[in-house]
Amino acid sequence: MLIGLGLGPGDPELLTLKAVRILKESDTVYVPGKLALELVSPYTDAEILDFPMTHDKTTLDTTISNNADVVSAEARHKLVAFGLIGDPNFFSTFTRLKRQIRERYPDIIIKTVPGISSITAFASRTDTGIDRSFVVSDGSLVTTKIVLKARRPKRIKEDLIKEGYSNFIFAEKLFSDAERVTDDIPDTGDYFSILHASKKNENNEKKSQGG
Ligand SMILES: C[S@@+](CC[C@H](N)C(=O)[O-])C[C@H]1O[C@@H](n2cnc3c(N)ncnc32)[C@H](O)[C@@H]1O
Predict the structure, then answer these.
(1) Angle of helix 93-104 versus helix 57-75 axis, rounded to 10
(2) What is the pTM of this model?
């Protein structure tokens, strides 16, 4: 099994208890760079898997492909953690690695464990309360909308379809005993719920591996 493990924004005290446990229990731990290596070093001997900072598609594809081979060979029979800065599903190297592995090695079980991402770390350090809708961008097209407090998810979905959104995931009471995650969007939801809408399939990878 492969676990994409969120390590938080860089403060050793902002690792979760779950992250520490998984680091200790894993047979092999990979990280993408020195900051992540430092964060995991009190708990395990990790290995850096190089992900070069380049826009060259060939180099990127080759690197991801090679890293997918290395990680999959280990993860087929052992518990492998890949520790990443912030959260593993938020603008993360792990998403592309996961995509490759799912395509080429579908037998590998992949899960992710969330970490404190740069967005909430930023809000905390700058005393910025984010309580209105906002856009996060790395310069690519905006193809995703996340609606909080989705108490009327079906109605929200119908409105978003008119804006061109086509893929929807509803998540309620995450990480609790009453958790519900479904793409069969219900009429009503709890206050602790999220509707994720995207315009492209690539933003809408398998929901069942959430964490
Ligand atoms: C590849 S993304 C990784 C995002 C990460 N997965 C997350 O959940 O925050 C790298 C970008 O995240 C932001 N970032 C991550 N950690 C940060 C930190 N400690 N301080 C400021 N920005 C950070 C920066 O914008 C950086 O260029």
Answers:
(1) 70
(2) 0.88
